[in-house]
Amino acid sequence: MIFRTKPSRTARPALRRVRTTVAPRPLRHRLDPARVEEIPFRAGDGVRLGLTRVDSGDPGRPAVLLLHGHTASADMFLLPETRNLVDVLLDDGYEPWLLDWRGSSRLPYNETGRRYTYDDVALYDIPEAVAHIRQRIGDRPLFVVAHCIGSLTLALSLTAGLVPGLAGVVSQGVFLTPKLAGRTSLRMSVAGELMKSRIDHIPVDFRGVGLWSKYTPLFALASRGADCPDPTCQILHNSAWGSGASLFVHENLHRTTHDRLAELLGPAPLWILPHLRRIELARSVVRWNDTDLRYRALPPNALDAADRVDTPVLLLSGSENGLWLDSQRLCHEVLARRQPHLDVAYTEIPGYGHLDTFLGRGAALDVFGHILEFLGERR
Ligand SMILES: [Zn+2]
């Protein structure tokens, strides 16, 4: 066993202090700035997060909360270079809300400051955001569209009963039955060795790291057999932060998105891996904090508590998901067998990988229609 120690909040200070401010870096979008309301917002435990509402001018619309994946940010739903999910939701009569939870690359916590586990996201970030939105929208319907770890942590919040009464949930990539690509699982053990070498996160921006650094071997490993010469693309597309998985189907990205990858996906903290490893071994979303009573509201095993899911769920996945493989199909099968009363559907997007289901230049055409159809039937 590589991971014997628990991630510690009092561990030695981060090695590379990139940002010291907790203010989120500015969003990049092409909306009218007057319509973008950035709300001063703190999670239930006081950590400063980002919460953004896009004003549609119509106060009666159903709201849709968007949850990004780990190391991504709300920017993934706002790409100026494509027809993005926020565009599509606005045009179809919804009010988009975007949460930058503590794993966002717009926030500093992946690189510096207070460490966390996914328990904190499920217990403090998502429920507080939902409560805040509810306060603002009253009894209008509230949907959630969640990607990757945003969806996995939402699964933990949902099965804890912390976000009751949602109108529906769209989950992309992974939900209650995480299954990581084989090489990913193997290389997660390598991370323990990296941590011993005083590397505490995997950067993605080669320009920020320099040619000769302790990270050079990681980039060299990722470049093996790569078709694309861009080192940031290599470490994400070819190696998913050194894990060996693949995050997207290369040709599905717009050239501009491709060249912005280092901005759209930040460094991955290695200290989160013990929790991810435990989740992977359990093939379920499991709580990290077993003895700390603050986390007792979370179920030890979310799949075992799936009967607490009280909202319709659409499980989405690209057919070529190179990180979570067929986790969503598996989730649909398991829930159909174990919890036949739940309203759970599965839709597979042919030719898509993981991130490109939202970042892809053709996502509005190939993916977002499925989301709108699901929301439209329940609004
Ligand atoms: Zn590339």
Automatic annotation (TrEMBL):
<keyword id="KW-0274">FAD</keyword>
<comment type="similarity">
    <text>Belongs to the GMC oxidoreductase family.</text>
</comment>
<dbReference type="GO" id="GO:0016491">
    <property type="term" value="F:oxidoreductase activity"/>
</dbReference>
<keyword id="KW-0472">Membrane</keyword>
<protein>
    <submittedName>
        <fullName>Esterase/lipase</fullName>
    </submittedName>
</protein>
<keyword id="KW-0560">Oxidoreductase</keyword>
<keyword id="KW-0285">Flavoprotein</keyword>
<dbReference type="InterPro" id="IPR052542">
    <property type="entry name" value="Cholesterol_Oxidase"/>
</dbReference>
<keyword id="KW-0812">Transmembrane</keyword>
<dbReference type="InterPro" id="IPR029058">
    <property type="entry name" value="AB_hydrolase_fold"/>
</dbReference>
<feature type="transmembrane region" description="Helical">
    <location>
        <begin position="142"/>
        <end position="167"/>
    </location>
</feature>
<dbReference type="Pfam" id="PF00561">
    <property type="entry name" value="Abhydrolase_1"/>
</dbReference>
<dbReference type="InterPro" id="IPR000073">
    <property type="entry name" value="AB_hydrolase_1"/>
</dbReference>
<feature type="domain" description="AB hydrolase-1">
    <location>
        <begin position="62"/>
        <end position="155"/>
    </location>
</feature>
<keyword id="KW-1133">Transmembrane helix</keyword>
